[in-house]
């Protein structure tokens, strides 16, 4: 999985931009939603060892790989198995920064809205949300690439709202006062956008 993501999504480029927008600071609490194999969580821990990092994913086998990756890197991360639920938010929140990468395009429109609203409720009042995901596919080339890869694998129903630029409006309707698309990275699978909301 890691190799595929690296080759087909220009991962180093968009993750570097994502890390720059998160800009972890000493003493902050960060949450990575849908952390997968832990690539971003490990990168964050290496960038700023004085940050408390929590990582959440529903797949125990993927989390086991993430834990091994963190162990090899010598970083401390708190791993959670499950979904971003109200119970999780009440037990573990609030967080100064919440991030998520390549998760929202895979879920239904209603679930995208639920997750973003849960992220909002899990943040401190001055908190920041930073998302990297397939967003508005602006050009014909990116629409074709997205259709031939992401939509061929994940289907059209759940992925098309992302391609139609739904994420910024979902963030605004969830109560974020400031929403910006700060980067667009063209890849062989379509364009990946970085969104920052506060």
Characterization of the model:
This protein is an alpha/beta fold. Helices cover 47% and strands 26% of the residues. The chain has helices at 2-9, 11-22, 39-47, 60-73, 86-92, 109-122, 140-148, 150-154, 156-163, 166-173; strands at residues 29-33, 52-57, 78-81, 95-101, 123-134, 179-187, 190-197. The protein has a seven-stranded mixed sheet, sandwiched between helices. Helix 3 links the parallel strand 1 (29-33) and strand 2 (52-57). Helix 3 runs parallel beside helix 4 (60-73) and helix 5 (86-92) runs parallel beside helix 6. The chain is globular and about 45 Å long.
Indicate the topology.
Blueprint: H1 2-9, H2 11-22, E1 29-33, H3 39-47, E2 52-57, H4 60-73, E3 78-81, H5 86-92, E4 95-101, H6 109-122, E5 123-134, H7 140-148, H8 150-154, H9 156-163, H10 166-173, E6 179-187, E7 190-197
Parallel strand pairs: 1-2, 1-4, 2-3, 4-5
Antiparallel strand pairs: 5-7, 6-7
Characteristic terms for this protein:
198 residues, alpha/beta, 7 strands
